[in-house]
Amino acid sequence: MTAPDRIVAKEGIAAREAARPAGAAAAASCRRREGGLIDRSRSLSFSFDGKAFAGHPGDTLASALLANGVRLLGRSFKYHRPRGVLTAGSEEPNALVELRGGARREPNTRATVVELYDGLEAASQNRWPSLRFDLAGAGDLLSPLLTAGFYYKTFMWPAAFWEKVYEPLIRRAAGLGRLSGAPDPDSYEKSYAFCDVLVIGAGPAGLMAALTAGRAGARVILADEDFRVGGRLLAETHEVGGRPGPLWADDVLAELAGLDNVRCLPRTTVYGVYDGGTYGALERVADHLPVPPPGRPRQRLWKIVARRAVLAAGATERPIAFGDNDRPGILLAGAQRSYLNRFGVLTGSRTAVFTCSDDGWRSAADLVRAGAEVAAVIDTRPDARCPDGLTGLEDVALIAGGRVVETRGRLGLTSIDCLDRDGRRRSLAVDGLAVSGGWNPALHLTCHQGARPVWRDDLATFLPADDLPPGLAVAGAAAGGFSTAAALAQGAERGAAAAEAAGHAVRKPEPPEAEDGPVAVTPFWHVKESRARAWLDFQNDVTVKDVALAHREGFRSVEHLKRYTTLGMATDQGKTANVQALAIMAELTGKSIPETGTTVFRPPYTPVAISAFAGRSRGKDFRPVRKTPSHDWAVEQGAVFVETGAWLRAQWFPRPGETHWRQSVDREVLAVRNAVGVCDVTTLGKIDIQGADAGAFLNRVYANGFAKLPLGKVRYGLMLREDGFVMDDGTTARLGEAHYVMTTTTAKAVPVFRHLEFCRQVLWPGLDLQLISTTEQWAQFAVAGPRARDLLREIVDPDHDISNQAFPYMACGEVTVCGGTRARLFRLSFSGELAYEVAVPARYGDAMIRALMAAGAAFEVTPYGTEALGVLRIEKGHPAGNELNGQTTAANLGMGRMVSKKKDCIGNVLSERPGLNAPDDLRLVGFVPLDRRAQLTAGAHFIALGRAAVAAEDQGYMTSVAHSPNLGHSIGLGLIQRGGERIGEKVRAVDLVRGADVEVEIVSPHFIDPEGERLRA
Amino acid sequence: MRIPCPLCGERDASEFTYLGDAGPRRPDPTAPDAAEAFHDYLHLRDNPAGWHVELWYHEAGCRSWLQVSRNTLTHELGEVRRAEDLGLDEPSP
């Protein structure tokens, strides 16, 4: 069979075919008695669609099913076509299954990469009632209607039908697997690693790269998605350095394992390349076990920072499109060899090979060597001949210049029809077909930073571009080095270069001897004579006709083609489809492939579960909770908590018999107004400011004057943004000549600190001061109410005079409490009552609240939460978060005169913009309902009486409301045009969201003690 | 992206907070055209495709404000300096 004219005559094949027994009963695929890298001494049981099977360690789910004669694995996404296994790797488009049961059910898992374990459960997807008899398969008969763009064209109207009728129907019919809907019971974790050289892929190129760099002493990480190293060597019969390929790979792995500077990560897919030599990788720690061992995660997400990386990800074989090329039993030739050589599985009892290059012939040679029957090699090249170096093919029929045009077999291949170079048609009874359309380098990762692959005519494939991600080099088949010898040589060279670049002296090894066969491909994309549909994207059911339709309708650019036909948009991202579709579009437009375009790839290379990205950040762990120093005590009191930012704060403290939160809050408010209350205010941001220029600095960051704040005094401070709007407010106390303590609102603690550091470092680096956040270091409690001083006298050590004369309103100082504990005391009032804030080092916070409550028993002390805090400040007219909403100016809040005109401070220039000082600007005022029983709502908009509630009539909005137990009715704060001049006027407060429309009177925002006598008492 | 912090060494970008263009200087508030100058300082920015000098804050690290040269097309990083050190080169306003 070496002479080109030894093409078997038509009669010859026809006679052979006629002699075959009809309806052969033997299983189409089966396990061989010997060969392969599986452990036949042990058996693993598993089930598929409820039926029990057995396989061996070393199997994948796909190989074990094929070994058991199961070829039909699922139904396709759109047409519910019966589908089997196409590939033997992560590029698999067809063999998607639901793996595991219960809460661990995992849809759309590729059977070709699922490592078999004892007790594995899998089920087919997208079929009803059963895989063999699928009712929706009838949709296949309607396929002439269901072409590309069908949904866009058909479900245009009525628009309302889309969401309610069409989409649910389509979603049910077209689909993949089902999620369990239950919480994932397993854990996932994240790891970080740094290395000199990351090697991606452990085939001949990757192993050689890792070995070279590892021997040179570089810190190497070798990651491979498979559970066994060797890459393509596992699937072929090649020898390396005189050793069978898989054994050579094992030897290298053993040497690498002995090097302390090398870490091998099997079952790990590098899925993305990011800036600065950062790589994302997913390690499947326990996916090959029934459940993860105790304390182990299921998967681990790696962030690897590598100085250099070598991509040695190999190549993906591409199919040829011909009529009904999607039947179970039709595999890629390389996959067929992988099942034969690695898993000892014959994927057909009688196989034909359809190829456009010498590479496909390897399948015929390996099958013959294994004693299997090869019906014919159908080679698209008219001058095809058996390649040099392959033996045993003398009796195999060759159809040179041939094409497979059609196939038959409802649930699995039974025969094919082919044409020879003279156009004569013949039928072959085969249940296996190995298809080889050439190889596409797995260059996906090279595109992740925007590089586009480059077409190489001589190799008929795309190769990685020159503008690779910085630090990344490509070796082996991924770089077009398709022979084993080329892969080994490139791996050694790139590994050496990477180690050298990372600062290691390298002695270049002599790569071991290996096959160096030619890799010529005469590209052949699709069989034009085929009448039946010829599939390109198996997972999204895109055919050659769909590409032609896209071309006819003008969707000719690659990006349009993709979106119009959904080509390459399935979970496999078109790894076995994109290049052929592009080539067919090039044919249709009469342009070259480079002119037509390229497809680019984005992360992830293969799907990564959201659980892996989430890691430990699930449920309560999604965001850590910050607890106040009095938290444990508040829990003991039965407090109801509220989240304020990350903080958990006591909202109110219910007492026995109180059935409504208002009862608790009203009681707490009245207790503060009439006796004394205690509230944990630790959450307010605290910033310690020290240095000779600290005062000058404060004077620049606050809008009001701070230059003359005396020692031992606190001042309210209003902070603006540079654009003139209010950023935050708080107080700053002067504890020493050059020592100040600032408080911020809880919400703005972090942004204000960042802003102050900006001012200090970027704007005024010449000022002498330092800042540090002490929010966590000090526990701080507000003690408020007419009996506050009485209570504090029991707490503050007696040598500190806290009388009104010695320690008046806005005084501050360092004191000791409870017999010598260091503390800070501030006479501040947010409630409008006589009030203090006392701060102790955070470790004394729990003791402090207990001491305050014990000492306060004699004064009817009441703990109060954030809700009462809110009521008290609204009664007093103090703005808070609702008013400091980023859209208000000092003038809006009635504090316009505080903005000093005499000094430079952040925001004062632009606070004078005319737009922020219009005559009808908003002003903060109070509101009460005319009908005192009515409840006000925050968010209501103010409309003049008798006017329509439309945006054009809008005069402002209510910002905060509360029920005032002191006044006995609802009160509100709000921003309304010219508010200050309109006291006594009546307007409507219209809340269209809640359906409220209340007549209100504009009043002073100070509902309680407008003269401030209480707080100075 | 990895930013070489002059104090902490090379760190992941997730430790940093981005502000933007480091070019604009806070104007003299006493100048007659201060309002106009502040408007420009706050709102006018170039959006270059290529090298850009910008401010980053090492919030989860040493709290330095950094002046970072970054190529907006490739995310390649050039010179990184502490803003505080730079500011000391210039007279304080």
Overview of the molecule:
The complex is a heterodimer of chains A (1017) and B (93). The N terminus of chain A is likely disordered. Chain A has 21 helices and 52 strands. In chain A, the strands form 14 sheets. In chain A, strands 9, 10, 13, 14, 15, 16 and 30 form a seven-stranded mixed β-sheet that branches. With 1017 residues, chain A is α+β, with helices and mostly antiparallel strands. Chain B has a domain of 64 residues: 2-Layer Sandwich (Folate-binding fold). Chain B is 18% helix and 35% strand. Chain B has a four-stranded antiparallel β-sheet. A two-stranded antiparallel sheet of chain B has the order 1-2. In chain B, a hairpin with a 5-residue loop joins β5 and β6. Chain B is globular. Chain B starts with a strand and ends with a helix. At the A-B interface, α18 of A face α1 and α2 of B.
Keywords:
heterodimer, A: alpha+beta, 52 strands, 26% strand, disordered N terminus, B: 93 residues, alpha+beta, Folate-binding fold, two-stranded antiparallel ribbon, 2 helices, globular
Quaternary structure state of the chains depicted? heterodimer
Number of strands of chain B: 6
User: Span between N and C termini of chain A?
Assistant: 113 Å
Cα shape of chain A: elongated
How much of the residues of chain B is beta strand, in percent?
Answer: 35-45%
Q: From the alpha-carbon coordinates, what is the Rg of chain A to the nearest angstrom?
A: 38 Å
Q: Approximately how much beta-strand content do the residues of chain A carry?
A: 25-35%
State the end-to-end distance of chain B: 34 Å
Helical content of chain A stands at 10-25%
Task: Enumerate how many helices of chain B there are, as a single number.
Answer: 2
